[in-house]
Design goal:
Number of domains: 3
Strand content: 15-25%
Largest sheet: 9 strands, mixed
Structural class: alpha/beta
Shape: elongated
CATH superfamily of the largest domain: Glycoside hydrolase/deacetylase
Helix content: 25-40%
Number of strands: 17
């Protein structure tokens, strides 16, 4: 059975994109598109039955232009979902409505016709394209769009994969009208990664820097054992032994991932466009080259951690990716594709999407908020990217970042520390990804395994175990 989808004849490129993402990429349903100027809503028709959906976002959207007129109106309406089966995938029974539904029941069905007063396609496009970041100009000191500036944070759904939930609501409505309709199966995935910002303690590079570090520890009255351990590490590294370095945790990470049948992606910095903020190592260092080769030999992956200024420069990103690929080729590292993540999660919509594609990356995994863990795109599934400015679907795909460890633990951000509350919040995000058969994308830095609590949390997060209680 093929669904016939009829839409208003406006923003055609954007509509074609989002219908394809939802019906084809996500649900795997055959369909054909029709555009009619007289249509005011969206109609899905097959076998004499019809499902109508509200069409609100695109009525305010001006293609190729950023306008605050198309932003959702706060406070959002809350729909208390009564659809049978919705409890399987909804994070909570009540769901915020970004666009659509003014009054009455949100879903009505009478005979051969159903009406869903939720703008699933417009809401999904708004979040996946990062339209609000194109419109809103608030930025933090690193020129990042913060979680606190987002509608997801203000309306309290940053911890929900709301687009996945919207699509599942749509599927419930479709399957009620067409019970013989079959969707493609989806599987929960744990996508684990490590940004290699500081591969080892940088002060070990010279006697002078090690002396300065040692004196600083003494002045801060740190325990003598700390200083002794620091010198032991320094002397060991001088002999090529990094096993005592607290930041050099790569083999431990790979061992932990191997135990649960996971591949970890290690994103390496290949340039220093921001100076010292881009770390203090080079891909030409023997220890880094040996590390890249060992990661590949152990069945894990290499990616690009694009430096601080690349988010607005395609030339810089192209050069850095070429440098990484050259080193990999020299070391015999061959991969089907390469992914990337921006250093400090710096991002500008839609320029950074464009830069990633021009550089030749297969996917990006930057789009999570630095200041609050959760669902920046409202989505926990990999998806093709749409360029708002040039109005085209890119070859690049996005793997939204759900959780970075420092976001939850650090006092600079959520500040939950090593508490039960922190672990519960992180596990909640993981479980909500699993509930919708999505991707739990985890970033944990190699330099952040300084405590037993780090290792314990990490093992629980990468474990295949899921508990929805």
């Amino acid at each position: 059975m093929k669904l016939s989808v009829t839409l208003p004849a406006t923003a055609i490129l954007e509509r074609e994109y989002i219908v394809s993402v939802i019906l084809d990429d996500y649900l795997g349903l055959p369909f054909k598109l029709n555009f009619k100027p007289e249509n005011t809503d969206i109609e899905i028709v097959a076998e004499g039955k019809t499902l109508r959906l509200d069409d609100c976002f695109f009525k305010r959207y001006v293609p190729g232009h950023a306008s605050s007129d198309a932003l959702p109106v706060s406070p959002l309406k809350i729909w208390d979902v009564e659809l049978a089966g919705a409890e399987r995938f909804l994070s909570e029974k009540k769901i915020p409505v970004l666009f659509g539904w003014s009054n009455g029941e949100c879903y009505l069905q009478s005979g051969q016709c159903g009406v869903l007063k939720l703008d699933v396609f417009g809401s999904a496009f708004f979040l996946l394209s990062r339209y609000e970041e194109w419109v809103c100009q608030q930025r933090d000191i690193h020129d990042r769009f913060s979680a606190t500036s987002s509608v997801a944070y203000r309306e309290g759904f940053i911890d929900r994969p709301i687009v996945n939930e919207y699509i599942e609501v749509l599927w419930l409505c479709l399957s009620r009208l067409w019970p013989n309709l079959h969707r493609k199966p989806r599987c929960f995935r744990r996508l684990v990664s490590c940004d290699v910002d500081i591969p080892y303690i940088s002060e070990t590079k010279s006697w002078r820097s090690q002396m300065v570090r040692s004196l600083a520890d003494l002045l801060k009255q740190k325990p003598l054992q700390v200083n002794i351990q620091s010198w032991r590490n320094f002397l060991a590294i001088g002999k090529g032994d990094y096993s005592l370095d607290p930041y050099y945790q790569f083999d431990w990470i790979m061992d932990a991932c191997d135990e649960v049948d996971l591949s970890c992606t290690f994103f390496f910095i290949a340039g220093h466009s921001g100076g010292k903020i881009d770390g203090d190592y080079s891909l030409n260092e023997p220890v880094i080259r040996q590390l890249i080769k060992r990661i590949h030999q152990r069945g894990h992956e290499i990616g690009l951690h694009a430096s601080y200024q690349t988010y607005r420069s395609s030339d810089l990103m192209i050069r850095e990716f070429e440098r990484l690929k050259t080193v990999c080729a020299e070391l015999g590292v061959s991969q089907v594709g390469f992914g990337g993540r921006q250093h400090y999660l710096r991002w500008k919509t839609p320029e950074t999407f464009q830069n990633c594609q021009r550089a030749g990356l297969n996917y990006d995994s930057t789009l999570g908020f630095a200041d609050h863990a959760g669902f920046r795109c409202g989505f926990c599934s990999e998806y093709p990217v749409f360029d708002l400015k040039n109005r085209e679907t890119l070859k690049l795909t996005e793997r939204p970042l759900v959780l970075m460890e420092s976001t939850v633990l650090s006092d600079s951000y959520m500040g939950l520390g090593y508490t039960r509350e922190a672990l519960d919040y992180m596990l909640k995000l993981k479980h909500r990804c699993a509930r919708v058969q999505g991707d739990f994308t985890l970033l944990w830095h190699n330099s952040h395994f300084l405590t037993d609590s780090d290792r314990e949390m990490y093992r629980k997060l990468i474990s295949p175990a899921i508990n929805f209680q």
